[in-house]
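Supplementary Text 2. Reproducibility record for the structural model of the 151-residue chain.

All settings were left at their defaults, and a single model was retained for analysis rather than an ensemble. We include the record here because the model underlies the residue-level annotations in Supplementary Table 4.
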Amino acid sequence: MPEMPRDSRSHYVLKVPIDTIQPGNSLVVDRGQGRQLFQVEEVTLHSKKAADGKHATTYTLTSGPVAGGGKPWTMELPAGSTVTRLLGDAEVEEYKRNARNSRYAAGYHYAQLQQSDITVVDQKRFGDLWADRYSAEGLTLPQAWETYKSH
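Retained model, structure tokens:
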């Protein structure tokens, strides 16, 4: 997993897909005056039919109350965009756990697809190795499987 850089206030910042943002998330945005906090209050998904007949999907993010009584900010971004999310220590640990669990599941299921008679113990072993070692070494699942089978 890539390291998440810490900002100067002891938080972590991470580029994430727009479709993962939920109300309550904190984002870091640059509105032309340097980095500023954007506290997400509402996320709305819009889909419009474009002239070419395809659907264009956008997300509208609305901030919470702005200091000094100003109007909430809104950001409209196309699907597929990334935003910079601000994470505290507890959220970072949860993110790392979830990412590790996802890698484990991918390895566990890949092993089963590669060898139908594999034992659950060996599936778990490969899942753990994929999650903790092989993916960090930059191997693909097929390369990791070959490495696993050769030992």
